[in-house]
Amino acid sequence: MANEAKPLVKCSVSNCHYWGEQNVCKAEMIMIEIDRHAHMKLNEEYGAEAYTNDHQDVADKSSETCCLTFKPRA
C-alpha cells in the first residue's frame, strides 16, 4: 500500500489523533461507515479489516455516513 497515492482528506474534528494542520487527515487508512453502524465496536483505527473488506452498504447521501477512523488525541 506504500506506493498507492492517497487522496487528500479534509476533516474539521480537531481533537482527533489523525487531525493535521489546515484540517488535513493524516491517517494511513480511512474507514467510513453508514450511520446505522456508527456504534459498532471496531476499535477505531480500522480495527476489523475482515469486516471492512467484505462488508458493503449503500448510502443515499453523504450525511448518512460517518468516519470510524476517529481516535481521540492523547
Describe it.
There is one protein chain. The protein is mostly beta strands. The protein has a domain of about 40 residues. The chain is built from 1 helix and 4 strands. The strands form 2 sheets. Strands 1-2 form a two-stranded antiparallel sheet. The longest helix has 6 residues. The radius of gyration is 13 Å and the shape is globular. The N and C termini lie far apart (about 25 Å). The model has no long low-confidence stretch (mean pLDDT about 75). InterPro entries: DUF1540. This is DUF1540 domain-containing protein.
Task: Give the proportion of residues in helices.
Answer: under 10%
Task: Kindly provide the radius of gyration, computed on alpha-carbon positions and rounded to a whole number of angstroms.
Answer: 13 Å
Tell me the fraction of residues in β-strands, as a range. 5-15%
Mean pLDDT: 75
Structural class: mainly beta
Assign an overall shape: globular
Instruction: Note the gap between the termini.
Output: 27 Å
Unreliable spans: none
Order of helices and strands: EEEHE
**Quick one: biggest sheet?**
2 strands, antiparallel
Give the helix tally: 1
